[in-house]
Specification:
- This protein is mainly α.
- The protein has one domain.
- The protein contains 7 helices and 3 strands; from the N terminus they run ααβββααααα.
- The protein has a 3-stranded mixed beta sheet.
- The longest helix has 18 residues.
- It is globular, with a radius of gyration of 17 Å.
- It comes from Mycolicibacterium confluentis.
- This is DUF955 domain-containing protein.
């Protein structure tokens, strides 16, 4: 299934932030989004629970993307988490899900719930995990086709459009 127009537009907006000189990398795009938002984004490798490849954590003064240490394709996970951020995904707070599910939550239950995907469906029923995956795939595809010097981005986009 092709990416939605919203996802395609979000990828184009992120690529428009790409530095005009030097190599355009995923990390440089994350830095550009951070600058554009006026809010720091830190990328850290971490030991995450089993089955969790990445997490986006929002703090009062900055955001963090945690990437599972040792992933063979960490860039895909980073692009996925960036997709959540630029697409405006909020999800449901894990603590709120726990309150709804039980009156008393044990440490084991809280740990279990922190490892579950919560809030994957948006208010309109759209699957935000699929949107983030589509964003990551399209961003990495376009990033791979982008020249080191962004001055010829028009040629890249024409090549994508016409093969």
């Amino acid at each position: 299934m092709p990416a939605s127009r919203r996802v395609t537009r979000a990828v184009a907006e992120v690529l428009d932030l790409a530095p005009r000189k030097g190599e355009v990398t995923l990390q440089r795009l994350v830095d550009a989004v951070s600058t554009d938002r006026g809010r720091d984004i830190e990328v850290k490798m971490a030991e995450l629970p089993e089955g969790v490849c990445g997490q986006w954590r929002q703090y009062n003064d900055h955001d963090e993307f945690l990437i599972q240490r040792g992933l063979p394709t960490w860039d895909r996970t980073l692009a996925h988490e960036l997709g959540h951020l630029v697409l405006g995904h909020d999800g449901i707070a894990v603590a709120e899900v726990a309150r709804r599910a039980t009156e008393i939550a044990s440490d084991d239950l809280i740990s279990y719930m922190l490892n579950q995907r919560t809030g994957c469906m948006g208010p309109g029923g759209e699957d935000i995990e699929q949107d983030a995956e589509d964003f990551a795939a399209l961003l990495l595809y376009r990033l791979g086709r982008m020249p080191s010097d962004r001055s010829s981005i028009v040629q890249v986009r024409l090549g994508e459009a016409f093969g």
